[in-house]
Amino acid sequence: MFFYTEQLINEIVPDEPDPAAAKALQEILGGHFGEMRTMMQFSFQSANFRGPATQYRDLIRGIFLEEISHVELVQTTINQLLDGSGTPKQDGASGDAALKNATGDGITYHYIIGAQSSLPVDSAGNPWNGSWVYDHGNLVSNLLDNLVLEATGTLQKSRIYEMSSNKTLRETLAFLMVRDNAHQNAYAKALETLGVNWGKVLPVPQYDLNQYPECRKYLERGWNNVQFNFRLDPTRIGEIFSGPSPDRSGGMLSVEPPPAGFPVPVLAERPMEHSPGIPVPSPAAAQQQQQQPVMA
Amino acid sequence: MFFYTEQLINEIVPDEPDPAAAKALQEILGGHFGEMRTMMQFSFQSANFRGPATQYRDLIRGIFLEEISHVELVQTTINQLLDGSGTPKQDGASGDAALKNATGDGITYHYIIGAQSSLPVDSAGNPWNGSWVYDHGNLVSNLLDNLVLEATGTLQKSRIYEMSSNKTLRETLAFLMVRDNAHQNAYAKALETLGVNWGKVLPVPQYDLNQYPECRKYLERGWNNVQFNFRLDPTRIGEIFSGPSPDRSGGMLSVEPPPAGFPVPVLAERPMEHSPGIPVPSPAAAQQQQQQPVMA
Amino acid sequence: MFFYTEQLINEIVPDEPDPAAAKALQEILGGHFGEMRTMMQFSFQSANFRGPATQYRDLIRGIFLEEISHVELVQTTINQLLDGSGTPKQDGASGDAALKNATGDGITYHYIIGAQSSLPVDSAGNPWNGSWVYDHGNLVSNLLDNLVLEATGTLQKSRIYEMSSNKTLRETLAFLMVRDNAHQNAYAKALETLGVNWGKVLPVPQYDLNQYPECRKYLERGWNNVQFNFRLDPTRIGEIFSGPSPDRSGGMLSVEPPPAGFPVPVLAERPMEHSPGIPVPSPAAAQQQQQQPVMA
Amino acid sequence: MFFYTEQLINEIVPDEPDPAAAKALQEILGGHFGEMRTMMQFSFQSANFRGPATQYRDLIRGIFLEEISHVELVQTTINQLLDGSGTPKQDGASGDAALKNATGDGITYHYIIGAQSSLPVDSAGNPWNGSWVYDHGNLVSNLLDNLVLEATGTLQKSRIYEMSSNKTLRETLAFLMVRDNAHQNAYAKALETLGVNWGKVLPVPQYDLNQYPECRKYLERGWNNVQFNFRLDPTRIGEIFSGPSPDRSGGMLSVEPPPAGFPVPVLAERPMEHSPGIPVPSPAAAQQQQQQPVMA
Amino acid sequence: MFFYTEQLINEIVPDEPDPAAAKALQEILGGHFGEMRTMMQFSFQSANFRGPATQYRDLIRGIFLEEISHVELVQTTINQLLDGSGTPKQDGASGDAALKNATGDGITYHYIIGAQSSLPVDSAGNPWNGSWVYDHGNLVSNLLDNLVLEATGTLQKSRIYEMSSNKTLRETLAFLMVRDNAHQNAYAKALETLGVNWGKVLPVPQYDLNQYPECRKYLERGWNNVQFNFRLDPTRIGEIFSGPSPDRSGGMLSVEPPPAGFPVPVLAERPMEHSPGIPVPSPAAAQQQQQQPVMA
Amino acid sequence: MFFYTEQLINEIVPDEPDPAAAKALQEILGGHFGEMRTMMQFSFQSANFRGPATQYRDLIRGIFLEEISHVELVQTTINQLLDGSGTPKQDGASGDAALKNATGDGITYHYIIGAQSSLPVDSAGNPWNGSWVYDHGNLVSNLLDNLVLEATGTLQKSRIYEMSSNKTLRETLAFLMVRDNAHQNAYAKALETLGVNWGKVLPVPQYDLNQYPECRKYLERGWNNVQFNFRLDPTRIGEIFSGPSPDRSGGMLSVEPPPAGFPVPVLAERPMEHSPGIPVPSPAAAQQQQQQPVMA
């Protein structure tokens, strides 16, 4: 069973709207190697796990749990990049085309299907596809596949980083690049326990994360060698994720509590796009709105 | 951020393997109106929510949280239905075709891609598709769409119920039918707060859940009018989900703590299908296996 | 603008339910070379037509009109083949699995998504896909493509004919094979007006339709060389579709009024599958049901 | 059976070419909630209808019939928006790139697959997909689903309206918004006959259609509460579609004859794009062109 | 540029038709981890290669070349498994359903689209999809991805091996398992040249290929450590593919000439399925058939 | 079995990068009527061929062989059009967005998935789809379908030619238009041997290839009536491909040896995009790099 507290796993740094950046970032949300894939792939691999070596299942499931928060972070980042990108004029429908300049290099879906918000599609607008998720039914194959998945996550993020200097975009990418690095170390370490020696090959790509300024603070905290633990019950993840890191840059692996969490930005209504366009509440609803939260 | 404890939201009742039932149940996992869709649809609608009426966002998100556990429950049920369906003989590859009778009316994927385990596809083997997820960017449209989604969930489950008398299958379906009913009530109630009066139309379909024997115990607990709360922080869900139920059968809506939780069944390795086929552990790995869980 | 009278373009011959035949026939409805494709392909080609040679547009549109009725005929035939294939017992959900034997070699969708009725998918359950529709923006390419499309329609139908001796199935196939033959002649003739001489190559395949007993009555009416005219206004179709047929078997082409039409079979409700499951009507609705049809 | 007269259901208002508007409008033609989906969804629901309450089938089929004309209207509008958007120079292939500036913010398909004409794809170029069509096999589910479908139609059109002030685009959108409103009222009324009271919630979104200047003339004719009847035989549609409208703005529902109809614009050939590129007609064809239309 | 000689890379061993085996084998042809994917993935990776380390490009391209022959081998094996599976009676269309028992547990496509022959789809009938092909634009990622691809090829083949004891099926699978093993060794060795030490982890899965009797003769020839060279010009492949094998079972890697080649089985016409259904040749064609091959 | 020599079938003419041209050209590589489709369609049709008339199989296979080289040519042309389109600055990640202006009117995939290189997708980013490949299991249908395929190839290429005056783009298009013309003639001739007389209808479209300046040199060599022979063993292709051409412009068909071949351009590494980003080689690898090519 899954529990939740309404806090983002990392901060949304404010900057100007940037529809082209939102378009590129959809690859990280709904693309072949995006966060929805990692979330679902690790979900299936942990649910389908066979045999008593549950330390490996706990490792995969532990990363799965963090990926759910990554999906939420990327959804929120896309929303922030889109919000206000096509500011409608007051006179609205009776005047000029209010969203005329909104689309720019963006995705039309962002302005037609929703009202400037995220979607389960990739950067070309192709919907997320279940055939991308793979559980090979074999541990070594799964670990190798997951290693490729996390390595490609970093690769794609580092390329999108070069496509815009928008701070909202870059902060989220930088955080995720460090986390992908940690997850890559996790799967690499799991393969080490089975006998592989990676030499200096990992992580892929052969970058220095310090060259991305936003990454530095995360590296100083050692987050490229940390696995956050979102389990409320015991886990064997530390049997794998401990000891020397397989990372080219060294360090020691450790399992730590989740980060502090950041508030979710509030998105204003967009009446001209009928979003959400709540009808005037009925008297019954007005009454209910004076009740208190049940769990406060 | 999302947290987890390794317990299923409902019990897996043991019965014989049934590959045809596993095939049908894939529709409930990866189909157009299956649990992966409800999970992702409510994820996007809550992340993209606009405006101050956050009691509606909390309702949608609250159901999203339960759906993640539904995905886990259906994955595990499919695994139980498949496991042992093609028991290989000892002599294995050198003898007769060990999986010859396994496929039967099942899905070939279950025996080729994985080793008798669940997949993100529907009952015809079509992969889950992100275009099915919809956030209209408009509250009333979303609530109506979600109502249709939950109603169709029950419809499909009640039809699959008639396709096999396997107890593993029926128990999971019965639990989910009652929960879909509760979620249908949630979205119907949200529309009531905006002024709709449903008369005796809901829930869809016009069934009596008591006709399904496995449903009765859940109805006796009133779970068709309960919303489980998986939030670790305050939530406004009770501003909507309280008072008289829009359910034809009456009752009062209430938000309650999650159910107690059930253990995840252990799946044995299947060496002949190379699942997981862990190589003999290296000495280093053997050492690590004697370490203790970090959070125990 | 499009008008309608509730009559099928051909008769539904009763026979036993046959889910495997229904499965195969979905290829003819929603497959790559099925009736939905012909309908939409000719719709786009006629709407997008360029230039003054509108006799060709009228030919393509004329066939488009008939294809809408073909879609309706195949939908209805599939329904007839499915209806009653999984007869539920009276005791319903409380007894044995009522649909256990229904699926057989059929498509699970037929029993889960709907209640034993047709779907826009092909015989493997793959959904109809807009990329199959092609308007080349060039008349000769379009005519050649349409010729291949109609020829393949007959090819596939003649192969499905061999897969079951069910009379419901075979009558609809036989009618459509003769009509596909006529439409193949139409596109072949259009190419003749541009200078092609087909020799004895057409129609494809090199069959004798008389070998299919159900075809004979249609051939006796000459329907392989007839184009039905569903236009309520003038059309230039006769400028193409007249004179000697390009059909290997000879004959003269002629445009004729539509056939007489046949009643649509009535499908009974299936309460156990909640189809349609109309709730007990409200008093307001009961009043309205006593009103008279507006156009009677 | 289906009949046709070559008249558009509404006027095409001339304006400049606008490939970006054509791109956005493809969502309304081939998108998840576009006119092809409404057409096919209502086609399947009416063909698969079960039981004696045929007034509901006649309502669904009646809207289906109008949707075929909507498809034709949107195809033609897209063609008008594209036509001439990439005017080739006289010197053609031997000179500069004639279509260089044509694509702009448009869809490449419009210039490669066809010669500046409509396609069965959405605004991101994704092909129309049969999995979007849904017949739940349950009347209430179908009515609710159709209500969501029509409501979303208006939502998306009102957003595209804000993306361009092109008159060709806006006139078609305005007509369709009023008609979607009428169809939303139809499904809402059908649910009223089963006992639902919508209060002031409908139509979705909570707009005032009068704010869109092009809508006003249609509202003055009361077309948001009118259902056009394209049946040539009796229909029970009036048993549902009559009496007070469920529309927030009030009014009485009535079934009326179709509108007068408008001529289809003529599209010139585009020889440089080889469209249609009719070869010089053979003597035989030249002869035939002097024949008279058969039905004139 | 690519050249060809009409010889199969391995023998087709005759056995009875087996449509269920043909269905399963489609996964190896057109599935996510099938031969079409390996062929196209290595095609793109070699064409897109960057930089001077062309020994890696030559390795990838060398395997690409062999994969084209694997596609041909699997196509031919599927044809052999299907051919004659639905033997039509002499009286054909006028008699009983000739293909009634043909489909069995097979794919309907095999009998409707073609006449008992292979298709670019997987074992569930899903068409091959270009999104599965991946060129990461990074050498290490590509090598790791390719390693997973080849390992999964063996995994899937070894599972299909257990689904039927048909000799036609098993011989092709056995040959391909040994070759996948060799290709897995190739990518593993390439990663060794970059510093990885695989210990005893590879190949995946941890099988003993000798347990599959058909594999033994290929192992005796050492083909699990051989790369066939299909280049007609020099290649640097030997700079990687030489020295000790990374295979758990040891051995030395070597580049060798292609195997001798085997004749392509001749498939008889199937007139009742109109395949190919050559019309009676015209006199012109009859004349041409007496000409000699140009290159004999 | 397939053999290879590393030479392109035509020259890559250098010009400036042009991402919009690369985008359009993806239609020719991975589109519905692109080179991957022709390659795979002819592969399946030749492998599945039935009956003794193997001169037709040899014709289809002969064109298949050339299409593999076409795929390679278009991959390489796209790479040339993309390479350097987003030149990163020296200061890289720490400075401004290095790829900010790279995407322009291009495909985001080109900069995220790979590092400025080709993909198996079409011009809208939709992945190549196996359902487009068709083997009708009937010779005449196949020949007609292939004729349409080749004709559409030229149509699309002639339209893309008008979208950019980039020399790299136009040279490849011009070569392929002439080759498509030759292949169209091949299938038209095959149908002539069965009795069709094409008059002056072919080739489609009714262009004069001489109007495209880059085509002229190929026409002077007569390449629109030549079939290159890539077989290393005898072939019966000349029984079909000889005698008068069905081409409107006349000429005689002849089978000739392949063209001389052109070198593959070398693509430089792009370290900032981590492509290929080879880690510093290990000592073992360094040793191996001093070995000699095995086949030099």
UniProtKB/TrEMBL annotation, chains A, B, C, D, E, F:
InterPro entries: Ferritin-like (IPR012347), Ferritin-like_SF (IPR009078), Mn_catalase (IPR007760), Mn_catalase_dom (IPR039377)
Disordered as annotated region, ranges: 263-296
Transmembrane segments: none
Pfam families linked: Mn_catalase
Biased composition regions of type Low complexity, renumbered to the chain: 284-296
Highest taxon of the lineage: Bacteria
Family of this protein: Belongs to the manganese catalase family.
Name this polypeptide is given: Manganese catalase family protein
Origin species: Paenibacillus chartarius
